[in-house]
């Protein structure tokens, strides 16, 4: 923090797009969970043995990257049901014309702004699942995010699902579960398993620390006997400093000419790729990409329109991430997108759509059997809708469950999602 | 879960297994561990701060104690001090007011912003005024004498959040701060709520300005119920009815001012919870909407929501239900007047029993650091002030900047992140050493300011600084660790020429601010 952080978003230029609304982890105020205990427990393991040897865990599954599209992602814009005539009836102003849809099949195709992802789709490492949702629909952003990340509907379980995933995989180090891009951990990681939130890898350094000024050691001593609510994050910070310092010293240049967009999303995915390649023990990584709450001005499928530009940033960032990892790296990564709910089928009067229910997920990874849209399409005829929304025919947890089983070495999905059966779409190959 | 209930499971050995600590032990000759006796961790954070009730009140009702604030509360006593803080207009605030004149755009109303834009002094849809408002919020937290008022402005800014900067509120966001939040921060919640509902900033942020009778937009109606008033006790039909009743509350495109547009209003009977209204005429739509807001402001569920949130801010993360109930009763009896609720809160037995139960947020930590170190604004300009704002931005807590409508979280668990702690530590040293922001005014001599009478030993230096910065004493083990930073023992003799009271003093100051004691308020 010795430098003055240049405000990247204070251009003061005339901007037609809104500033982000639901970009941050807005649910945390309600998720007073055991996050502190989580990082604390992580330090009891044998990871992070020295400054140069990163955590060495026995985990051999894919790194599960969870990209949270906060604010209510409009799956109907991203994975367009162009074969469903009711789609065009419901959205006269904002539907994506059939002539502009990319790839896909007789029913679905991709929004044209996703064109940077076309090679991945055609190459078979990008797939979508349509009509996905939560078991207990709510149109409250905050309740929906809380429930999506707790992911244990109908139970009194308070931990987050990624915390349980980390626990099931025997996580021992904060670098087993990392969230990038924000200094606060997501609700999904709340619980006893270790995790680490990093605004950025390069920004993680301690001012004043030197061989003659042992700041880190002294701080560690000061927290040695502190109450856990304070000692947890403090000690995790101390432990993570060593790894971050080594990473920073090594530097990082994305491979294969990968061009990440110069945005927080691009920076966060770049850091994920960096941690994957550095083999710091990553089991899961979380990244947020918000501002999908397009009640107004979602717009048509043209550059300069809100949805177009936002999907395009998403596509460019994911394409760069895949390029940076290369085929070998991508073979050990499964990325899923999640959003708390989809948007209303019927557009509103403001070229937008209000909160809805059923949604689309994207899956990216070397083990993904891509190039197709999975799921059972219920149709958009008024009689088929659930309170005006796309009905959810697939529990989002069963989709993740299939990924966990086939790619992340998890035998029993109910350890992570109580009472949920993994889907059997065959949307990923079994990891060798 | 109460912040104090997390069990401590961290064995000391595992800390040493980490790379950072391994290097540290080498640097201090490996003597640290041997010197520190094994002892049980305190079960709660209560023992980390002074139990003095006046200091407890200062830590909670302000952005952090200063020697002057402590002298004032000791002279006035708790009751008179609180009365004075609850009457902010009676408190002279010349220095802060003078500083705020450097942020003139933050004081403009909507015609003022638009006029400045028309005159070419501002960009249309520019962020300059909104950024100045963010800087002003930092300045007020650090340097206003009206501390409790500023804490409450922050509280309501979060409760009725309109993120700042926000493009669609380019001309109205700073006016919202002045004409809605600051105007009513210690008034009645009903007035505050109704003012927010008729302000272009809120109507833009939650889309009510584009809501029409044929296509009601539910965004504001939903958050009005869920976040601003009753919470999740409503149905989807309540949201839709509220959205219909709120149609017509919009923004005049020509002037940017609030306007009620009867032609947009959806007439017809509505019911929201137990509120029923015939809503028979378009001309009567605004009055009907205001009647709903009055009903919601005085709903028992709203009283619970406001009382609990105030307790989370001022008492503990999981406040006692009996206190919340009692304060909700005061709220209803006083027709949503805020000051009586605060008075009841601060004089409650539960408040007195909550010493040390709150952990500082990043904003509270930074403001408390500035206040306790006696750092004051730069002589001219705002470069350093901007630096403080951007420090907070990297910590995820720049004032007013939270994007979603629910406001920044106010519980320890939400901020318990390794990155957040690291950022605070870096802030402490940067401020203590004067590295960043460079231009702020610092005491001419840090050592004379903080320890006017030089102790004779390193242990004495630690103790004097702890008393001054933390208001309490550190444990023996912590004293050993802090003197070991200089390669000394607590009994080592201190000379006036030692680096520990010269160029290296900022490190010791920062370490005390980094310690668990300063993390608690």
Structure description:
- The complex is a heterodimer of chains A (432) and B (521).
- Mean pLDDT of chain A is 86; it is low at 1-56.
- By secondary structure, chain A is an alpha/beta fold.
- In chain A, strands 1, 4, 5, 6, 7, 8, 9, 10 and 11 form a nine-stranded mixed β-sheet that branches.
- Chain A is built from eleven helices and eleven strands.
- Chain B is mainly alpha-helical and 521 residues long.
- Chain B has 29 helices and four strands.
- Chain B has helices at 12-17, 19-27, 31-35, 53-61, 67-76, 78-85, 94-100, 110-118, 128-143, 147-159, 173-184, 189-197, 200-205, 219-228, 236-246, 285-297, 300-314, 321-333, 338-346, 349-352, 362-373, 383-394, 412-415, 418-433, 446-450, 458-470, 476-484, 505-514, 516-519; strands spanning 249-251, 258-260, 270-272, 275-277.
- In chain B, the strands form two sheets. Chain B has a two-stranded antiparallel sheet with strand order 1-2. A two-stranded antiparallel ribbon of chain B has the order 3-4.
- In chain B, a hairpin with a 6-residue loop joins β1 and β2 (258-260).
- Chain B is globular.
- Classes of the chains: A alpha/beta (432), B mainly alpha (521).
- Chains A and B meet through α1, α5, β6, α7 and α8 of A and α1, α2, α14, α22 and α23 of B.
Detail the topology: elements first, then pairings:
The complex is a heterodimer of chains A (432) and B (521).
Chain A: H1 35-42, E1 63-68, H2 75-78, E2 79-80, H3 85-90, E3 109-110, H4 118-122, E4 126-133, H5 141-150, H6 161-168, E5 177-180, E6 196-198, H7 215-222, H8 228-250, H9 264-278, E7 284-288, H10 306-330, E8 333-338, E9 359-365, E10 373-374, E11 394-395, H11 396-407
Parallel strand pairs in A: 1-7, 1-8, 4-10, 4-11, 5-6, 5-7
Antiparallel strand pairs in A: 2-3, 4-9, 8-9
Helix pairs in contact in A: 1-8, 7-8, 9-10
Chain B: H1 12-17, H2 19-27, H3 31-35, H4 53-61, H5 67-76, H6 78-85, H7 94-100, H8 110-118, H9 128-143, H10 147-159, H11 173-184, H12 189-197, H13 200-205, H14 219-228, H15 236-246, E1 249-251, E2 258-260, E3 270-272, E4 275-277, H16 285-297, H17 300-314, H18 321-333, H19 338-346, H20 349-352, H21 362-373, H22 383-394, H23 412-415, H24 418-433, H25 446-450, H26 458-470, H27 476-484, H28 505-514, H29 516-519
Antiparallel strand pairs in B: 1-2, 3-4
Helix pairs in contact in B: 5-6, 7-9, 9-10, 9-21, 9-22, 11-12, 12-16, 14-15, 17-18, 17-19, 18-19, 21-24, 24-28, 26-27, 26-28
